[in-house]
Amino acid sequence: MMKKQRGARVSFDQATVKGSNDSASKPAAKPGRNSSLSKSMSIDRTLQMHRNLIYSVDEDNIDQTMWMAMFNRREEEEPPADWAVETRTIVPVMPPRAEWLTQATLPTRLGPPDSRVERERQVVLTGESLCFDGKPGTLADTVPLLEITAVEVEGRWCVVRTQEGGYNSGGTYWMGGDAEKAHVWREKVDDQWGAAKAKRDDPWRLSKLWCQGVYNSRATQNFIAVLIVASFVTVIMEEQWQPEAGTETERLLRQLDWVFTCVFMLDLTVNCYAHFFKLFVSEVWNLFDVVLVFLSLIHLVNISTSNQEWLLPLRYARAFRIFRLAGKFEQLRKLVGAIGKSVVPMSNGFLIALIVGSTFCVLGTQGFKEDDPANFGTFARTFYTLWIAMSFQEWQTNLRYLDENEKVDFRVLAFLIIFVIVMIWIALQVVLAILLYNFLSSQEKEKALTAKTLLTKNLAPHKSTGGLDPLLHQLLRVCQEARDVSKCVTRIFLFCDAGERGTLGFHDLKVGLRKLHTQKPIELTDYDWALLTHDVSLLDEDERVGMTDFHRLVGVELMKHVQRHLFGVQGMNEHNVESQWQIASIRSLLSIQRAHDQSDQGVLPQFVDQTPAQTPLQGVAPNVHYREARLRRG
Questions:
Q1: Distances from the Cα of 443 to the Cαs of 316, 366, 433, 451, in angstroms?
Q2: In three state form, how does the secondary structure of 571-592 look?
Q3: Contact present, 140 and 122 (Cβ < 8 Å)
Q4: What is the percent of the chain where pLDDT is above 70?
Q5: How far apart are CA 377 and CA 389, in angstroms?
Q6: Mean pLDDT, rounded, of the chain
């Protein structure tokens, strides 16, 4: 029965390909005649090669791996650089060679039991996974060691079984080819599997995870913030009262200082243990805490023992305790971070102001040192004099712009006025502008993140999306041209088709999408599958999707994804009438285009075909199994 259904499918597509080939073999149309028809018949070379290879053979001699062989040959014709680099950010690739523990080229059997094909592959064992190489350099599949349930030898095969509902959904992997290799690889995988489980169950690691959860909780952070404020209030009280040594107040304040310092030392120790080592040192505020706490501790030990005078300035470190709040609250951290990012560009402005000011100091010293040696006798005196002039202080008493006859010395007065104009109205304004520009740039980035969160919130009511939103978002982010999207979708199809059947079922797509590199893991459900394949013309008799129909499916979902986000952006710009109408116009055009595409049968998506429009292919008839599939699915 299965063979009969498959034969019916092949016969239908053979007629399709035959019609396309017959039309292509006819004499070329004259210029200006039937040009639109000829243009509509051109389709992407990749998909045409797949269609010819899959469906142009006799149904009794169908080789399920022939379509994969054709794709491999096409990759050999083109250099690997021809494939978009961004594609590899979605489809997993082999781990770096530095992580390889052992590797060999072995016969392997991957995929579902009903379509498992024996193939020579490079097998790589790392400290975390067992990887099977695809071509070129992508992963055919990978098995996390912690999800292995059993490693056995069956005849000439080393069999690796995985847990149900895990990363590989209970898949079984065969490798070895002969009994000797099977036993060798069973020992290697078993040893590394045991090491991975020992690392997972390590008490040190588990205690660190528990400390991370406790330390990063909101209650703990709020408690530490209260202690920081209380410590700073104690420092203010000490500076206000200034108690004499040996008094009751002085002893109480010192005891409180010891308590706060010990608590902060405990906080630093727990933080270091929970995030040791890389996470701890990569956070600037943690390093600030280390310096501050140790300076305070050295000061307390000094005044309680030898009381060395050269260590007494360390008490000033307590005044900076309040800045530790910036490491505890997100908003304060953002503000301080924005100011910090402005320091380096602002220092360039300060350097320009310093150069201009130094130039005026040299000119003032050379021009007025003989007339007024008290204010302009040396470079340092001139610098101090001009600093007073820039702050508008003591012009009348100290700056001698009046000569001995009480007449105005216009040389000095003009020099001071030009200096004030250049420094205050120009140079310092440039410094301020640089500070504001970089500060506002950081704030704009924060606003963009907030807008993204708002957009996600606006799209929350659209729950019936088919589950592909993370993949569609990644495609729009990394693919620049239609050709890149087409190649990326093709590679995703090949990656998901682990059994090399040339079609994808629900289980194949569910397992494959889960392994893609997306911002959020894709967990395809039965409901999502029903939404994606509501157009039953995408499915064959076995409820599976072929290469061409997979491109159609992704193209339709990509358009829906763009429309949903346009709706969210329109909601964000509801107070901007111009933006509202522009976005509404784009949505309307996309809706009309989508309605036009749904009214056609056998239409390829625009990003697959590099022709300007989506037009029906000559010789493609409506799906002959549409009614039967509709009845099967209710």
A1: 32, 46, 15, 12
A2: HHCCCCHHHHHHHHHHHHHHHH
A3: no
A4: 69
A5: 16
A6: 75
Q: 583 near 566, Cβ under 8 Å? A: yes
Return the amino acid letter for 515.
K
What does the alpha-carbon distance between residue 400 and residue 375 come to, in Å, rounded to a whole number?
8
Q: Which strands make up the sheet holding 172-176, listed edge to edge?
A: 139-144, 129-133, 117-126, 100-110, 172-176, 157-162, 148-154
Amino acid residing at 101: L
Q: Is the peptide bond before 277 cis (omega within 30 degrees of 0)?
A: yes
Of residues 625 and 341, more confidently modeled: 341
Contact by Cβ (8 Å): 545, 539: yes
Q: What is the pLDDT of residues 81-110, one digit of tens each?
A: 444 344 457 888 888 899 999 999 999 988
What are the CB-based long-range contacts (under 8 Å, 24+) for 550-554? 550/489, 550/493, 550/504, 551/47, 551/486, 551/489, 551/490, 551/604, 551/605, 551/608, 552/603, 552/604, 552/605, 554/468, 554/472, 554/475, 554/489, 554/605
Calculate mean pLDDT across residues 510-538. 85
**420 Cβ contact partners less than 8 Å away, ≥ 6 residues apart:** 389, 390
As a whole number of angstroms, the longest Cα–Cα distance in the chain is 121
Predicted local confidence at residue 76, as pLDDT: 45
Tokens representing 256 are 């409180």
3-state SS, residue 450:
helix
pLDDT-derived band at 146 (thresholds 50, 70, 90) equals very high
Q: Which residue has the tokens 């040396």?
A: 378
Structure-model confidence comparison of residues 415 and 63, the more confident one? 415
Report the percentage of the chain scoring pLDDT > 90. 25
Residue 140 belongs to what H/E stretch? strand 139-144
pLDDT reported for residue 84 = 39
Q: Residue 396 has what DSSP assignment?
A: T
574 Cβ contact partners less than 8 Å away, ≥ 6 residues apart: 580
Tokens of 530: 């029903």
Q: Which pair of tokens denotes residue 494?
A: 């090949």
Best CA proximity match to 571, nearest among 445, 447, 449, 456: 456
Calpha distance 628→536 (Å, rounded): 9
Q: What is the pLDDT of residue 590?
A: 62
* Position 252 pLDDT exceeds 80: yes
| Model confidence band, residue 456 (pLDDT cutoffs 50, 70, 90) | low
Alpha carbon of 50 to those of 188, 331, 545, 546, 603: distances in Å? 39, 54, 14, 10, 16
Question: How many other CB atoms are there within 10 angstroms of residue 29's CB atom?
Answer: 11
